[in-house]
Prior knowledge:
By secondary structure, the protein is mainly α. The chain has 4 helices and no strands. Helix 2 (38-44) packs antiparallel against helix 3 (50-63). The chain is globular. The protein starts with 18 loop residues before the first helix and ends in a 16-residue tail after the last helix.
Amino acid sequence: xxxxxxxxxxxxxxxxxxxxxxxxxxxxxxxxxxxxxxxxxxxxxxxxxxxxxxxxxxxxxxxxxxxxxxxxxxxxxxxxxxxxxxxxxxxxxxxxxxxxxxxxxxxxx
Length: 109
């Protein structure tokens, strides 16, 4: 019964198969300052889609007042790895659940 009361508004769009829906979800989180979306945004940093990575880093940068932890959306996956790890650690320090860890399967979240 308690699952019915859980706020899932921040998840709308993040689980959609369409990359544009996930981008819109990231932009909506940024526009509404929805910090509960941080784990999903951190996941998006590891996306195969550069537009998703841009949307995610822009939202996270806005949430932190400009921080990037050295993340650059155009770097290859190997070069992005260290910066993503720093975002994961930051998210943990903010109290974000472990599910915010990036996708390491090589597929788009």
